[in-house]
Amino acid sequence: MDLGIAGRRAVVTGASRGLGRGCAEALAAEGVHLVLAARGREALEEAAAAIRAAHGVPVTAVAADVTAAEGRQRLIEAAGEADILVTNAGGPPPGAWHEFGREDLLAALEANMLSAVALAGAFLPGMCARGWGRVVNITSSAVRAPSRSLGLSTAARMGLTGWVAAVAREVAGQGVTINNLLPGSHETDRIVALDRAAAEREGLSLEAVQARRRAEIPAGRYGTPAEFGAACAFLCSVRAGYIVGQNLLVDGGATALTL
Hints:
Blueprint: E1 9-13, H1 18-29, E2 33-38, H2 41-55, E3 59-63, H3 69-79, E4 84-87, H4 102-130, E5 133-138, H5 151-171, E6 176-183, H6 189-202, H7 206-216, H8 225-235, E7 247-250
Parallel strand pairs: 1-2, 1-4, 2-3, 4-5, 5-6, 6-7
């Protein structure tokens, strides 16, 4: 299927590895020109070089922490006009509600809500003026089915979810869609960190925790960044112009919901 986005320009944050990298790879495979951001310069440059070599598209790498205003501004200036924005930032640490205070909550809000809102606010006016645009936010399956250990992440991402629900309806008539992708357990550094934390809490081996978690997923395995990226590329495509303000689970069936 031709997704109809060859030659478009996309900004992808948290793009040096994991789900962000998977999204960047999938967009590059469709001929999309990329502006990639991540905090670690070395890993980001390596990812950019690999994507250029594999897909033959222009890739600009911007080493920046987009959870900070200065980093966002540097990315916005480097990107210029963008047709597609994919926001992605690592989640806050897991833990029980009583382990975190006000500053922890504010940090989570800045990383997992406000940074995405600020970046969308920078690029949406241009998308609307040109009559076409796509924004995809990588959030979490915990938005649909909260986890007891992910209270900070859930609170911040729920705020972003509410913002998208309102704003997506405002801009849809101008050819711009905003949607959220909700990952479950994928083969990323983040899931390893969560599994390791669970192993430490329960006095189990990492392997035992991972085997148990895989057994709880109807698909019987963790997802891959590549298949998550494919879902992202579709939402960014011309084929998805009638999908507005939605929260798409990509979790192997792990979240047991009817609606």
